[in-house]
């Protein structure tokens, strides 16, 4: 009987213990909230006005996600996806993995599921950091009130969902590249180059053909006023499905496994 | 006879011009320690990689424990343990964590983990990161991983690489015990003749992608005993060769000495007399030691 998917996933998850990818997720997710908190505490005199502003959470959300969604998140996804598969190349463990009693489909999707869960983990940690950035000054600085406005939880959840979908094409293409390249610098280099290209192509009306553009598009969609053939989340999902399919075919057709 | 591994006319090409395996038909009897012997680049690792599905099969068939590998890949891999070339261990994880990763996949009980670590002598390094292991320790951990699922067939490719002399002896003992006590069939590939000679019950000799011999080690030694080379050292190599040619005995020279094979003790005595009668001084006539090294050299030179 083949290994059930859940056990394969657990095995893949165990491999990420103390790995570079897991540290990058933890550190990278907290970077922006910690920086914002630091800047706010440094300019403590401005805090009472900021905390009583009517759209406190929305402003903080926009400020943090502008950097996170357009810049750091795509970069983090590029690096983490490449590192997860690199683990097998670096440790010469593909051959061990291929000789375990599991189907190639299970290996492919279990590893990809781990990457997706790690990206989700990044969102969760970032949001915790975001909330702490909002409330921490009230605890630390005298005279700074708690934000009067309630946390717009549902809107934030929707926004997070959009950014997560925007990350999916990046995960898929990086996964494809990193499964084919032994040298980790190659997929990371290609990923960064594509990410920069996407940022430069933001105002191009056909920019949506670039899989790395969706993080920025999710944020700037309204401002750009382009006529996309469909909703950009659907476009991102389309990219994801197509790239995963190509990646899977290349993976199972590999002549030399490990 | 039941075979744990059987390949039939396995042929593999890396390109149209480069045939790395040519009709390899291995037969590894159940319960055997099969020494798969050959010089570097002979095709040992390629054969084992094909057997484990790490290379896509081009021609021929593979069956493990009586079942087609292509049709029952997953079920058969559950019964096979392997260590191919350098050990596969996650350097950022401890020995125990490395085993836990595989334990999930083999679904074996947790008590099996310390057991296999003890078997390979790594109990003291249970919580040490594999990245800080010596090559020998990594090799042991690789063997522990291969044993984790209590396999029926264990495939070890050059398992003594990186082991110190003591480690080699311990590894040999471990394989012998597993074979004797648990009836485990073991395939060990090696270019170290002495290693195979000390351990194997059966052997297969591969050279330039072709299987030159397969059978029990005793058969090989017996077959070659009769045909073992005889060395004749005289003061006149040319005239010695002429005499042998007159008697239809094929011979060749090497470092100023004459070598021939397939002669009996009686023939050796008669030859000595004839050489002396022709005024040739005989310094030495002896049968070459009949060890695996000589046999191997003969086979690959034939």
TrEMBL record, chain A:
Transmembrane segments: 21-45, 65-87, 108-133, 153-177, 184-204, 232-252
Pfam hit, one: ABC2_membrane_4
Keywords assigned: Membrane, Transmembrane, Transmembrane helix
Keyword Kinase in record: no
Name assigned to this protein: ABC transporter permease
Organism annotation: Chitinophaga agrisoli
UniProtKB/TrEMBL annotation, chain B:
Spans through the membrane: none
Keyword terms of this UniProt record: ATP-binding, Nucleotide-binding, Transport
A single GO molecular function term of this UniProt record: ATP binding
Classification via Pfam families: ABC_tran
Domain ABC transporter per the UniProt entry, residue ranges: 5-233
Highest rank taxon of the organism: Bacteria
Keyword Phosphoprotein found: no
Family to which this protein belongs: Belongs to the ABC transporter superfamily.
PANTHER family: ABC TRANSPORTER, ATP-BINDING PROTEIN
Protein name (record): ABC transporter ATP-binding protein
Species annotation: Chitinophaga agrisoli
């Amino acid at each position: 009987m083949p290994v059930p998917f859940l056990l394969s996933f657990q095995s893949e998850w165990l491999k990420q213990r103390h790995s570079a990818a897991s540290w990058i997720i933890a550190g990278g997710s907290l970077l922006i909230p910690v920086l914002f908190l630091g800047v706010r505490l440094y300019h403590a005199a401005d805090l009472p006005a900021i905390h009583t502003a009517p759209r406190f959470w929305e402003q903080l959300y926009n400020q943090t996600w502008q950097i996170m969604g357009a810049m750091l998140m795509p970069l983090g996804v590029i690096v983490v996806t490449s590192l997860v598969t690199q683990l097998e190349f670096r440790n010469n463990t593909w051959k061990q993995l291929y000789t375990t009693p599991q189907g190639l489909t299970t290996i492919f999707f279990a590893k990809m599921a781990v990457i997706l869960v790690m990206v989700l983990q990044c969102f969760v940690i970032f949001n915790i950091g975001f909330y702490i950035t909002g409330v921490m000054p009230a605890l630390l600085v005298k005279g700074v009130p708690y934000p009067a406005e309630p946390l717009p939880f549902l809107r934030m959840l929707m926004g997070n969902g959009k950014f997560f979908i925007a990350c999916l094409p990046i995960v898929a293409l990086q996964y494809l590249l990193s499964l084919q390249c032994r040298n980790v610098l190659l997929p990371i280099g290609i990923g960064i180059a594509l990410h920069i290209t996407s940022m430069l192509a933001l105002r191009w009306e056909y920019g949506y053909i670039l899989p790395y553009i969706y993080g920025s598009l999710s944020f700037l969609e309204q401002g750009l006023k382009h006529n996309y053939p469909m909703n950009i989340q659907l476009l991102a999902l389309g990219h994801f499905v197509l790239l995963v399919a190509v990646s899977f075919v290349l993976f199972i057709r590999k002549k030399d496994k490990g | 006879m039941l075979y744990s591994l059987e390949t039939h006319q396995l042929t593999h090409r890396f390109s149209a011009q480069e045939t790395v395996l040519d009709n390899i038909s291995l037969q590894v009897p159940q319960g055997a320690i099969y020494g798969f012997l050959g010089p570097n680049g002979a095709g040992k690792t390629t054969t084992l990689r094909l057997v484990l599905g790490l290379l896509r099969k081009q021609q021929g068939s593979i069956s493990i424990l009586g079942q087609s590998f292509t049709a029952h890949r997953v079920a058969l891999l559950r019964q096979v343990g392997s260590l191919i070339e350098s050990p596969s261990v996650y350097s950022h994880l401890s020995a125990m964590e490395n085993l836990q990763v595989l334990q999930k996949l083999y679904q074996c009980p947790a008590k099996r983990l310390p057991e296999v670590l003890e078997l390979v002598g790594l109990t003291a390094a249970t919580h040490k990161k594999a990245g800080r292991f010596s090559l020998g320790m990594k090799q042991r951990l690789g063997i522990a991983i291969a044993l984790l699922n209590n396999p029926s067939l264990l495939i070890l490719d050059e398992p003594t690489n990186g082991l110190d002399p003591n480690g080699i002896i311990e590894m040999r003992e471990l394989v012998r015990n597993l074979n004797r006590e648990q009836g485990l069939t073991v395939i060990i590939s090696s270019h170290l003749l002495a290693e195979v000679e000390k351990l194997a019950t059966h052997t297969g000799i591969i050279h330039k992608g072709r299987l030159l011999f397969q059978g029990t080690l005793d058969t090989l030694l017996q077959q070659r005993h009769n045909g073992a080379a005889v060395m004749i050292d005289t003061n006149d190599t040319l005239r010695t060769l002429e005499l042998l040619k007159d008697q239809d005995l094929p011979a060749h020279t090497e470092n100023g000495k004459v070598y021939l094979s397939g002669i009996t003790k009686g023939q050796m005595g008669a030859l000595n007399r004839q050489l002396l009668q022709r005024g040739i001084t005989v310094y030495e006539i002896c049968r070459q030691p009949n060890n695996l090294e000589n046999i191997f050299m003969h086979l690959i030179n034939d």
